[in-house]
Design goal:
Layout lengths: L2 H6 L10 H17 L61 E6 L7 H4 L3 E7 L2 H9 L4 E3 L13 E7 L8 H11 E12 L7 H5 L8 H11 L2 E8 L4 H11 L27 H18 L9 E7 L9
Parallel strand pairs: 1-2, 1-4, 2-3, 4-5
Antiparallel strand pairs: 5-7, 6-7
Length: 318
């Protein structure tokens, strides 16, 4: 990304301050650095490890102190930290990949994925697209269950982050990701784990299902992908998270959060506010887990992270 383009785009956003979003980002980038970019150094914090909010911001979003699809209602980045995104932590990485973020929403992950190359976003809902473009991101409208306006093999890395659980036709999305990838390219996927953890959070996010690692792996194999990494995450907080979800189920203690699936005036799901001290503690736990995930797969968690490869022609199906 050139200096001129970087100056026009958000390099850090309010979502980066929430423990859930920060933890997921550290885990994703640590795994991608090793598998996609071949970088085995320590997991650099692609976002500030300090989870305190910007002083001038009064609202934060997110999906609870338990798990959460990452989303603040405030589209503006923190101006005084606008240059401290993932760009500065990627020396030595492959930065020339063609990257597609499918179902990118307001572009909350684009500034992090840009460590691997130029990022294109696709989103079906025009409301978050407007926010993404305000942030300076290159985002088009499109439905990933239908052929997207790109030639086969156009991308080296495709991200489908908290996407396929929203769609009845999850196989259609995986097949389109496969088509768009060049041979030897990678897809990175995150999904919520375990149907028995179904909660009000799934309702306000318009989820269709939650997955097990075996179920997701089987779908990827049917499409033709070769799994490189498959792990649960939010492992260290899993006992507390699962207990809280089950204790809240069917009670008035379920958080009442804004959702664009329920309100036309919203553009994404509001993340459940977390007290600053707890946010700091949970962020630290997430950072520790991200270091573990660089090397090891974890057996249980509230979410799943998968990196899969489209085999090269020499390896099999192209």
């Amino acid at each position: 990304m050139s200096e001129a383009v970087r100056a026009r785009t958000a390099q850090q956003i309010e979502e980066d301050r929430h423990w859930w979003f920060a933890s997921r980002t550290w885990a994703l980038l640590g795994m991608l650095d090793r598998v996609v970019a071949g970088h085995d150094g320590p997991a650099g914090p692609a976002l500030s490890q300090s989870p305190e909010p910007c002083p001038e911001r009064s609202r934060r979003g997110g999906e609870g102190a338990v798990e959460g699809p990452a989303l603040s209602r405030n589209p503006e980045p923190c101006p005084e930290r606008s240059r401290r995104g993932s760009e500065g932590a990627v020396e030595g990485l492959t930065a020339g990949l063609r990257v597609l973020d499918v179902g990118c929403g307001a572009g909350n992950m684009i500034h992090h994925l840009s460590r691997y190359g130029q990022v294109k976003g696709v989103e079906i809902d025009p409301r978050p697209i407007a926010v993404a473009r305000q942030r300076g991101y290159d985002v088009e409208q499109g439905d990933a269950t239908q052929p997207l306006p790109f030639q086969a093999g156009s991308f080296d890395l495709v991200a489908a982050l908290d996407l396929i659980e929203h769609n009845q036709d999850d196989m259609g999305i995986l097949q389109e990701c496969y088509r768009l990838l060049s041979p030897g390219g990678h897809v990175v996927i995150t999904v919520p784990a375990f149907m028995w953890l179904w909660s009000h959070n799934d309702v306000i996010n318009a989820h269709v299902r939650r997955y097990t690692a075996a179920e997701l792996g089987d779908k990827l194999r049917q499409v033709g992908f070769r799994t490189r990494r498959m792990t649960y995450n939010n492992f260290l907080v899993f006992p507390l998270a699962a207990a809280l979800i089950l204790a809240r189920r069917g009670t008035e203690r379920e958080p009442r959060l804004a959702s664009h699936h329920l309100d036309q005036d919203e553009y994404q799901v509001e993340m459940e506010p977390v007290p600053p001290l707890l946010n700091t503690i949970l962020s630290a736990v997430g950072w520790v887990e991200a270091q573990i995930l660089r090397w090891l797969n974890l057996p249980v968690g509230t979410s799943i992270i998968c990196i899969a490869e489209k085999p090269s022609q020499a390896q099999g199906r192209a």
